Amino acid sequence: MNDAISQRLDSLSIELNKVNYLQGDTLNFEAKLNNYTSNCKTATLHIRIEELKTGKKWSFRYPLIKGYFNTNIILDSTLKDGTYALHFAVQKWFFNLNGNVINPSKNDVSLNYVLLHKNKEMVNGSINLKTDSTFRSEYFLFQDSANLFFSRAKRNESLLKINIKNYLDSAFVAVDSLTKFIYIGKSNEEIKNFSELEKKYQFKNEDPLFKTTMSEVIINAKSKKLIDEFQKDNVSGMFSGADGIIIDGLESDDISRSTDLFTFLVSRIGGLTQTMDDEGKRILRWRKRRTDIYVNEIRTEQDLLLEIFPSDIAMIKVFDPGVPVSFGSAQGGTIAIYLKNGIYQKKDKPTNTFYLSGYTGLDVILK
């Protein structure tokens, strides 16, 4: 690379494409964990960027596969001129979950899970339970955020209550780290002092390295309802149409006080009925047609309604039969369920549904 700079410790090396950038430029970095075969074949690279004058910080995290990662960060035109510290830290953990079932059943030998990605993808799987009702998941690799559901293998049992821990967020220990400096703006004398900064600068881990890749949301309840802010952040495409009827789960406790979603929906939506299929499963129909169910705008089977705690729901949006929501929409209407996430999520009660922060996406914008 032209103007490339590098710094090596015992295992981690970082190369930047240059040290002096202008607003609008692209910062490229290449990370190598040189002894990954003996240390950690899969690891996580945390990056904290700090503007030295104001102390403003940005956090990102990326997967290191076989000790390597390369990506770009676009520098927004609104960034202030000045020196920025880039602190890189390697954690030997990859993204996975450890947990335990609070209310185990004698029939529980495994758990089913559904991972709903923010990019509208769904992944199904199962996890074996140990005799003490604890478990450890496989590695998950996803960008931005996702909602994770757990359910029992036998669904006629009570709803699961689970504790989970992700070591990337709750137990950060760096196996190697280093700090580099860049200057954003026209060439400045500060660049000559980078060697002095390397001696004096100390990274302070005062809060979690990675909270979320979502942009900051400021809620002003007096001027705008909370549900309106939630819609702006989470509703997209045809689901944002004005034809849908909204049932608020953030500022109203009507949903959270319900015994189950099937009963609640039938009681609130005129024309919606509940029947049983040949296997004894409950089915929602509208005008005698099967109703489409979406969770976080991902089409799902109606069975999933039985695995969602009503208190985990932020909003339900109901579209009458005949209203187009997605390609191939059924004539039995559409019900879109949105789960609480980020700042909208309360963690005061046991649950089986979790909002997870994943890895940073490629070509992000620093602003």
What does this structure look like?
With 367 residues, the chain is mainly β. Helix content is 8%, strand content 39%. The radius of gyration is 24 Å and the shape is globular. It folds into 3 domains: 5-94 and 171-211, Sandwich (Immunoglobulin-like), CATH 2.60.40; 98-167; 226-348, Ferric Hydroxamate Uptake Protein, Chain A, domain 1. It has helices at residues 167-170, 194-200, 226-234, 261-268; strands at residues 5-8, 12-16, 20-21, 26-33, 42-51, 57-65, 68-75, 82-91, 98-101, 110-117, 122-128, 134-136, 145-152, 162-165, 176-184, 245-248, 272-276, 282-286, 289-290, 292-295, 298-300, 313-319, 334-339, 353-357, 364-366. A 5-stranded mixed β-sheet has the order 1-2-4-7-25, with no helix packed on it. Strands 3-15-8-5-6 form a 5-stranded mixed β-sheet, covered by helices on one side.
Helix-strand blueprint:
Blueprint: E1 5-8, E2 12-16, E3 20-21, E4 26-33, E5 42-51, E6 57-65, E7 68-75, E8 82-91, E9 98-101, E10 110-117, E11 122-128, E12 134-136, E13 145-152, E14 162-165, H1 167-170, E15 176-184, H2 194-200, H3 226-234, E16 245-248, H4 261-268, E17 272-276, E18 282-286, E19 289-290, E20 292-295, E21 298-300, E22 313-319, E23 334-339, E24 353-357, E25 364-366
Parallel strand pairs: 3-15, 7-25, 20-23
Antiparallel strand pairs: 1-2, 2-4, 4-7, 5-6, 5-8, 8-15, 9-12, 9-14, 10-11, 10-13, 13-24, 16-22, 17-18, 18-19, 20-21, 22-23
Shape: globular
What is the CATH first-level class name of the largest domain? Mainly Beta
Largest sheet: 5 strands, mixed
What's the helix count?
A: 4
E-strand count: 25
Q: Indicate the mean pLDDT.
A: 82
- The appropriate CATH architecture of the largest domain is Sandwich
- Give the fraction of residues assigned to helices: under 10%
CATH topology of the largest domain: Immunoglobulin-like
Strand order of the largest sheet: 1-2-4-7-25
Q: Regions with pLDDT < 50 over 5+ consecutive residues?
A: 1-9, 207-223
Overall structural domain count = 3
Radius of gyration: 24 Å
Distance between the termini: 25 Å
> What structural category characterises the helix and strand content?
mainly beta
Order of helices and strands: EEEEEEEEEEEEEEHEHHEHEEEEEEEEE
Strand percentage, roughly? 35-45%
